[in-house]
Design goal:
Strand content: 15-25%
Number of helices: 11
Structural class: alpha/beta
Strand order of the largest sheet: 5-4-1-6-11-8-12-10-9
Distance between the termini: 60 Å
Number of strands: 13
Helix content: 25-40%
Bound molecules: uridine 5'-triphosphate
Largest sheet: 9 strands, mixed
Order of helices and strands: EEEHEHHHEHHEEHEEEEHHEEHH
Radius of gyration: 20 Å
């Protein structure tokens, strides 16, 4: 069987929750410790064997393109100084697979952004990784989703239990168990329901493995919540169709939504704790702060 190689990373959202930082910079370029969020996401895709990455971009895409390109002047300066450590840091984002870019045009929603990838993807299953959602590198969510797709030949979404008060921030799934503890059949999906209308507390997070049949489904999906073409609505149509079906992988690892301010700050602290060069001092400082 052919190995999956393609990842689509939509990065065309307006990032209004992070204004004014996102006025001239895509939110995916905000650093988490010392690396832009988007680099963690591309590294995750490449680790899972997806080395053909298509970014669907919006305004301010230059910063993204520059980040994954060579920086010859900077590299030459670091070479002349003999600073090989910093040179390696500059170069690490330029050797990550093959990265393609296309514009979304109008930001008409995540479903619309994914649909822009139709020609690039062709007739193969592919992954979608949201550029502002980080999965801890020790947790192999994407590998598991690719495995489930290869077995079931359906679209696969990543699901995570959230606090019932947070359902209005996510697509929420109605599910049925399978023989596997971490795999469910998704019977239906609803986009951002109020807590009293949510069918469960299983939320769709920013990783998807999709079959190419998703494209015609998106084409027949009317604008939904917020007037946007929602990927969740297209997947709900597929979930309700017994000929297509959708599966979910229930993720119990660590995930950070860097598009949300509090979660972004938590990501920085948690990942900095794990760093040899920062963790100890940060712990001491934080204890002092909490003691006051
Ligand atoms: P969000 O719901 O987080 O929206 O998008 P947003 O506009 O980026 O952020 P806020 O709410 O204004 O702060 C989820 C993902 O879908 C992408 C975003 O880049 C993000 O990765 N997206 C969303 C697009 O690529 N295009 C769109 O039209 C909408």
């Amino acid at each position: 069987m052919k190995r999956m190689t393609k990842a689509v990373v939509p990065v065309a959202g307006l990032g209004t929750r992070f204004l004014p930082a996102t006025k001239a910079l895509p939110k995916e370029m905000l650093p988490v410790v010392d690396k832009p969020a988007i680099q963690y996401v591309v590294e995750e895709a490449v680790r899972a064997g997806l080395d053909d990455v298509l970014m669907v971009t919006g305004r301010n895409k230059n910063a993204l393109e520059n980040h994954f390109d060579r920086a010859t002047e900077l590299e030459a300066t670091l070479i002349s100084k003999g600073d090989t450590q910093k040179l390696a840091k500059v170069e690490e984002s330029t050797i990550l697979g093959e990265i393609h870019y296309m514009r979304q045009g109008d930001p008409r929603g995540l479903g619309h952004a994914v649909h822009r990838a139709k020609r690039h993807v062709g007739q193969e299953p592919f992954a979608v990784l949201l550029g502002d959602d980080l999965i801890h590198e020790n947790d192999r969510l994407l590998d598991r989703m690719i495995e489930v797709n290869a077995e079931k030949h359906t679209c696969v979404v990543a699901l995570m239990e959230v606090d019932p008060s947070q359902t209005h921030m996510y697509g929420i799934a109605t599910v049925e168990g399978t023989g596997d503890d971490d795999v469910v059949v998704v019977k239906d999906l609803v986009e951002k329901p109020d807590p009293d209308e949510a069918p469960s507390n299983l939320a769709v997070i920013g990783r998807y493995v999709l079959e190419p049949e998703v494209f015609p489904t998106i084409e027949h999906t009317a604008p939904g919540r917020g007037g946007e073409i929602q990927l969740t609505d297209a997947l709900a149509t597929m979930a309700r169709d017994p000929r297509q079906r959708v599966h979910g992988v229930v993720f119990r690892g660590r995930r950070f939504d860097t598009g949300d301010k509090l979660s972004y700050i938590k990501a920085i602290i948690e990942l900095a704790f794990e760093r040899e060069d920062l963790g100890d001092e940060l712990r001491i400082w934080l204890k002092e702060q909490l003691g006051n």
